[in-house]
Design brief:
InterPro entries: Heat_shock_Hsp33, Heat_shock_Hsp33_C, Heat_shock_Hsp33_N. The chain has about 290 residues and is α+β, with helices and mostly antiparallel strands. It has helices at about 25-35, 40-55, 110-115, 140-155, 185-200, 205-210, 215-220, 240-250, 255-260, 280-290, and strands at about 5-10, 15-20, 65-70, 75-80, 85-90, 115-125, 130-135, 155-165, 170-180, 225, 230, 235, 265-270, 275-280. The chain folds into two domains: about 5-235, Hsp33 domain (3-Layer(bab) Sandwich), CATH 3.55.30.10; about 240-290, HSP33 redox switch-like (CBS domain Like, Alpha-Beta Complex). The longest helix is centred in the N-terminal third of the chain and has 17 residues, at about 40-55. The radius of gyration is 21 Å and the shape is globular. The N and C termini lie far apart (about 45 Å).
Length: about 290
């Protein structure tokens, strides 16, 4: 059983709301599946943490959320998705990107993602998609997520993300904390939270060393704090053969005929890399079903 979870908290009489996430196991699974190099694994991990944060208020029947960055850096498009039950998955266009460590000794996520492009959030609800996006600020993902929150929700926010990756690509710590100040929150409380965030450093290292999210929250929020129950998070891809078959069956007859002539088709899920093989006879039945 994994140890990933999300926890929500409020303080200052409900005027401060917080979401904290640990997603080490899920990010490590993403790294393994995509064989991502360290900077690519860090980009996926930060985005997966954002997805877990932004989806915290979705109801169980609220549909999945997708968070993506599409910049001009070498990793290309990065996508993270999460279901209301905490199932998460991610994909990255170019996982085999290697960049020098920054002068500060950090992974060059901003350079890998790029500074020109978009940070986008999509919410599927009752078969409809709702989308909002902002231009990238730095490509560091945390800065871009903060920019999205301020622009889209018009609420003062603070975000701290971290992914700790060994040189061999192994992820040993991933997570973050987000705090939002609702209208009416006193300025002195906001200043106190800002100071707490400045002191909240090396989140990924602390998570790797065994710190829990509750302790991180207590370093940022003023007492009294109300902590909601933990919500489990886990890597899980929900691709299905029947869904892929339906997609193939919706192709134009001419395209299906070409695949049949080739002896069949193989479709690989971009998230979990599972390959689904369809023989010529199976494709023929799909074609006949759409006549």
């Amino acid at each position: 059983m994994g140890t990933d979870y999300r926890i929500r908290a409020t303080a200052a009489g409900g005027l401060l709301r917080t979401v904290a996430v640990i997603a080490t196991d899920a990010v490590e699974r993403a790294q393994q599946i995509h064989r991502a190099w360290p900077v690519a694994a860090a980009a996926m991990g930060r985005l997966m943490t954002c997805a877990a944060m932004v989806s915290a208020d979705i109801k169980q029947d609220g549909g999945r959320m997708t968070v993506e960055v599409d910049g001009d850096g070498p990793v290309g498009r990065v996508v993270a998705e999460i279901q209301p039950n905490g199932a998460m998955r991610a994909r990255i266009q170019n996982p085999s990107v290697d960049l020098p460590i920054t002068p500060e000794g950090k992974l060059a996520v901003g350079q890998a993602v790029g500074q020109h492009g978009v940070f986008r959030v999509l919410h599927e609800d009752a078969e409809e998609w709702y989308q909002s996006q902002v231009a990238l600020k730095t490509g560091e993902i945390g800065d871009d997520f903060l920019h999205y929150l301020v622009q889209s929700e018009q609420i003062p926010s603070a975000v701290s993300l971290g992914v700790l990756v060994r040189s061999d690509g192994t992820v040993i710590g991933a997570g973050g904390v987000m705090v939002q100040a609702l209208p009416g929150c006193p300025a002195e409380i906001i200043d106190s939270v800002s100071q707490g965030f400045e002191n909240l450093t090396q989140i990924s290292r602390r998570l790797a060393d065994g710190d829990n999210l509750e302790s991180l929250i207590r370093e940022v929020l003023p007492e009294p704090i109300f902590l909601y129950p933990r919500e489990s998070l886990a890597w899980h891809c929900w691709c299905e053969r029947t869904t892929i078959a339906h997609t193939l069956g919706s192709l134009p007859r001419q395209d299906l005929g070409a695949l049949i002539a080739d002896g069949g088709a193989e479709v690989t899920c971009h998230f979990c890399r599972t390959a689904y093989r369809f023989s010529a006879s199976q494709l023929r039945r799909l074609r006949d079903g759409v006549e």
